[in-house]
Amino acid sequence: MSLFVPKFDESVVVREAEAEVVGRAPTTVRLLADSSATGGALSTQRVTLTAGADGAAPHWHDNSAEMFFLLDGAADILSGDEVLTAGPGDLVVVPPGKPHAFAAVPGTDADLLIVLTPGVERFEYFRHLQRIALGEATRESLLEVQELYDNHFLRSSAWDARRRAAAPGETV
Description:
Blueprint: E1 20-24, E2 27-33, E3 43-49, E4 54-60, E5 65-73, E6 75-79, E7 82-86, E8 91-94, E9 100-104, E10 110-117, H1 123-133, H2 146-149, E11 152-153, H3 157-166
């Protein structure tokens, strides 16, 4: 077992009013602290989803665990082949290499604190997602940056089945 000791000298303080906000309803991301600010210890953001909104499609990280802490509402979280429903105060930590995804439960908003550890520079990834939403980049362009952001996409039949069952008649 190796021990990772982050290298930074000052406490990281991010005031809500100063956090960069990427996106808008149904998916809003507040960029809180990137890996470079925490000496590699973690990357963290707060994701707010309106009723039933998708958060992240199924993916995995080779080098980081991802923590989901539900501040409010309810979220479906894929962990491997299992889809869990998390409520306020629930914590789910997905180990490196394990497929995961998240979305607000249909009819319910979700407010999540998400932490990757060790950290990966992720702020530019979320800005890239915003460029896709604005039509300034293609969805396929994400495939070109999978290695850079340690964000590898895959299909999940468990996730697809849960999302279809939760929202009949809608495409996910």
